[in-house]
Write a structure and sequence with these properties.
Blueprint: H1 8-27, E1 32-36, E2 39-42, H2 58-69
Antiparallel strand pairs: 1-2
């Protein structure tokens, strides 16, 4: 989406739920890093994200850890 590439339905859904998703992650204890206004990333040193966010399976591992804490 930042590259102006994306499906309209997906982009709309993301824009409508992104804020809630960020709040949920923060409330679940996920480390977040805001590099600029509105540019929020998983903290590279977070207990949930043990690798750079662009590496394979980081999202899957984060969700698994969050579900196990619920």
């Amino acid at each position: 989406m930042a590259e102006k590439v994306g499906y309209p339905i997906s982009s709309k859904a993301w824009s409508e739920t992104c804020g809630r998703a960020i709040d949920w992650l923060a409330n679940a204890g996920v480390g977040l890093e805001e590099t600029a206004p509105g540019r929020i990333w998983l903290d590279q040193n977070s207990e949930v994200s043990l690798a750079p966010v662009y590496k394979k399976d980081v999202g899957t591992r984060a969700l698994t850890n969050l579900k196990s804490d619920s």
